[in-house]
Structures are given as C-alpha cells and as structure tokens.
C-alpha cells in the first residue's frame, strides 16, 4: 500500500473520530432546551457603521453575561448561561459596520456563546441590559467603537465586562463612575434645557383612561433631569417645574436665556384615525415643510397651545433675516438632526418606535436659531397600550436611559475635556 493510501486512511479515520466526538458532545450536552435554558433569545441585530456599531440580543428574561476579546483574527466573545436560540424561520446572522459576521450556539452543558467576527480592532464603549417592559423584550446591548491594534491587544485575555444586574452599564475600566463624577467648573458644563410640554390651562392630549399629557411629560422631564444631574456632566434646567402654563415663545426664550447647548421638548401625542394601531415614540426637528401629514397635523396642534392659553401675538418680534443668523440657523439645524438620530438609535433598543421615527415639521417651540432643539413624542395617549406604558416606572427607566445615552454621545468631545 502506498504512502498516499496510508495518509488517506489516516485522514479518513481522524475525520470519523472527530465527527463521532462531536456527535457525542451534542448527545451529552445538546442544544439548550426549554427545560434547562434560563432564557430564550428571540432576535438579534447589528446597527451602525465603521466608527460605531451596536449589537443587540432580544431575550425573554434577565441573564448574566461576560465579554472578552480574542485576536488573530479580531473577535468579541459573549458568554452566556444556557439559553435557547429561537430566531425567526428566515433569520440569518448578518454583519454590519465593525462586525463582519457573527455566530451563536451551545458550547458545553450550561453554557452558550455568541462570537462576533470583527472587521478591525474595536473598543468596548458600553454594554447594558434593558429590562423587559410591556411587549418589549429584555435586551442586551453592546456598543463598539473603532480602536487601534495596540489598544485592542491590551484588552485581549481579560474579561472587559462581567455579570451585571439589569439596567447596569459596564464600560472600559478606568472611566470615572457616574456616582463619583469628575466635575468641571459649572461654567464649562454643557447646558441642557428640558421642556415639559403644555401645563396649566393647556392639558395637552388626554388618554382614553383620563391620562393627561401635561402630567406625564412633567413627571418624565423631572426624572430625566435627575438622571442627567447625577452624572455631573451637565447643567440641566426645566422650563416648568410644576403645573403652570408657559407660552411657546417663552419656552424658547428660557433656553436662550440659559445659553442652552441643547433644548429637549417632551410630549405625548394623540390621534383619532388609527388610534388602535398607531403607537410608539418619535422625534422631531424643525422644518417649514413637514415630513408627512401626521407631522404637519401634530405641529398645528402643538402650535395651537398659545391660543388655548390666551397668548397675544401682537408683540411678537418679526423674523430676523440677517445672513449671519441664517448661517447659524443652518448649523443649528444640522446639530439638531445629529442629536435626533442619536436618540432614535437609542430609543429603538429601549421602547417601541413608530415607522420612520425621525420626522420634521414647523414647531414653534423649536425655532431658536442658535440652540439645537428637538421635540420627543414619548408615545400615543390615544393608544391603550401606549397610555398604560407611559405610566410604567420600568418604561420610564428604559426611555430616560436611552435619552441619557444619546446625550452623552452628543456631548462626548466636551465631556472628554472636563
């Protein structure tokens, strides 16, 4: 018998031994089943680009997890307890941005793993678990940013994020903790003005169960302010801190009077047609031409607030047409759209959003020419599910966290200088 034949027989024998051992592992351990799995993973997705990429796992329960980097080739490993992967029938893992591709499965009894194959070196920006609320699943979120080979290699071989309680956030070590922020002088902190819509005689939308928009948005705005204040990175102000009417023009004047770097107006919408099926959050920027009929109708209703409050428009100043003001307005609009996009990406991981959640219309409250401004619709009080959700503490926690994350990304460069 020739050497080639011997070699062939040896390779064949080795292959069969490997196949038999693999079958034995599956027979002993098997895939995670409903009996031994701690959670069911029902969906996963990748979003972003080559500078920043987000990976999300949807599951029906809270799990501990750990992350670690491997090199040659570049990979991120997500270790989980035993979970069942029950993706839709036509589901295919797809990469995007910094993630070339990814795979998943059971690696031993009581352990599951997801491996992200990376296009280039990355750094872990943050990772957190969002608790399930209403019909929203628990979500494991991992944010990656571009990095250098040396920085990546420094992270290889050590756990960069270990088991965390739901709602906690892990980042690369050595960053200051939120509870013990490194504060800069107050004069150097970005100024944020949060505007709870309506108030006083103007109650805004009213839910089918009597929920008042003015109460929902004030409660949420207070909570969001507390979270931002706790970070120590910002000076945060509210346009109203109780149930009182403030004209739309005065709201923008408050923002400009505070030299605001960002203006966030908080609302909760209501519609008549399609109320049973239309639900979810959305975010608006200023545009004289509305992005769609719903946006145009919403702007008309919101701009009617001053009429409800009995405001006299006779003393309102005429529109300024100076070319420098117009250039500033264009730059402000670009900043507003940038922040709006960041919020949309965060909200997608935190709550239900409507189709095409980034919209625009001629909102009077967004017309400061030098303050980046957005209007966030938390949901639809005309929808029973949204109305119930808007009163949930868990939902409020998730959505406020999403807006905080977007705000931190928006001011990332200035925070780094503090």
From TrEMBL:
Catalytic reactions on record: Hydrolyzes the link between N-acetylmuramoyl residues and L-amino acid residues in certain cell-wall glycopeptides
Keywords assigned: Hydrolase, Signal
Domain of life assignment: Bacteria
Domain (MurNAc-LAA): residue spans on this chain: 252-408
EC number(s) given by UniProt: 3.5.1.28
GO biological process: peptidoglycan catabolic process
SUPFAM superfamilies in UniProt: Zn-dependent exopeptidases
One GO molecular-function entry: N-acetylmuramoyl-L-alanine amidase activity
GO cellular component, one term: outer membrane-bounded periplasmic space
Signal peptide from the UniProt entry: 1-19
Protein name: N-acetylmuramoyl-L-alanine amidase
Organism, as annotated: Pseudovibrio denitrificans
Organism lineage: Bacteria, Pseudomonadati, Pseudomonadota, Alphaproteobacteria, Hyphomicrobiales
């Amino acid at each position: 018998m020739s050497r080639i034949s011997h070699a062939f027989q040896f390779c064949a024998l080795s292959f069969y031994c490997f196949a038999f051992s693999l079958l034995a592992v599956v027979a002993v351990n098997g895939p995670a089943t409903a009996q031994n799995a701690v959670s069911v993973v029902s969906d996963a997705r990748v979003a972003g680009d080559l500078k920043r990429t987000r990976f999300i796992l949807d599951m029906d329960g809270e799990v501990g997890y750990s992350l670690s980097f491997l090199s040659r080739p570049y990979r991120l490993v997500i270790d989980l307890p035993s979970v069942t992967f029950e993706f839709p029938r036509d589901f295919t893992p797809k990469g995007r941005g910094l993630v070339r591709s990814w795979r998943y499965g059971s690696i031993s009894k009581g352990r599951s793993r997801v491996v992200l194959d990376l296009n280039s070196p990355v750094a872990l920006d943050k990772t957190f678990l969002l608790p399930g609320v209403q019909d929203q699943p628990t979500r494991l979120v991992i944010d990656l940013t571009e990095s250098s080979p040396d920085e990546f290699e420094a992270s290889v071989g050590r756990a960069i994020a270990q088991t965390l309680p739901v709602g906690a956030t892990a980042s690369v070590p050595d960053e200051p903790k939120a509870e013990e922020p490194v504060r800069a002088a107050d004069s150097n902190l970005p100024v944020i003005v949060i505007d709870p819509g309506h108030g006083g005689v103007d109650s805004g939308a009213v839910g089918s169960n009597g929920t008042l928009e003015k109460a929902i948005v004030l409660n949420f705005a207070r909570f969001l302010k507390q979270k931002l204040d706790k970070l120590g990175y910002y000076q945060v102000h509210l346009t109203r801190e109780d149930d009182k009417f403030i004209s739309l023009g005065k709201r923008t004047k408050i923002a400009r009077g505070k030299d605001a770097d960002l203006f966030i107006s908080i609302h909760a919408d209501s519609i008549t047609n399609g109320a049973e099926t239309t639900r979810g959050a959305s975010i608006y920027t200023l545009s004289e031409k509305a992005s769609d009929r719903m946006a145009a109708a919403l702007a008309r209703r919101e701009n009617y607030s001053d009429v409800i409050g009995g405001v006299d428009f006779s003393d309102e100043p005429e529109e300024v047409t100076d070319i420098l003001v117009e250039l500033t307005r264009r730059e402000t609009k670009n900043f507003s759209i940038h922040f709006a996009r960041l919020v949309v990406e965060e909200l997608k991981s935190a709550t239900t959003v409507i189709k095409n959640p980034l919209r625009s219309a001629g909102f009077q409250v967004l017309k400061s020419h030098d303050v980046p401004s957005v209007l966030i619709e938390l949901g639809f009080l005309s929808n029973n599910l949204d109305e119930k959700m808007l009163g949930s503490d868990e939902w409020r926690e998730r959505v406020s966290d999403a807006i905080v994350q977007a705000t931190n990304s928006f001011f990332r460069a200035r925070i780094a200088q503090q």
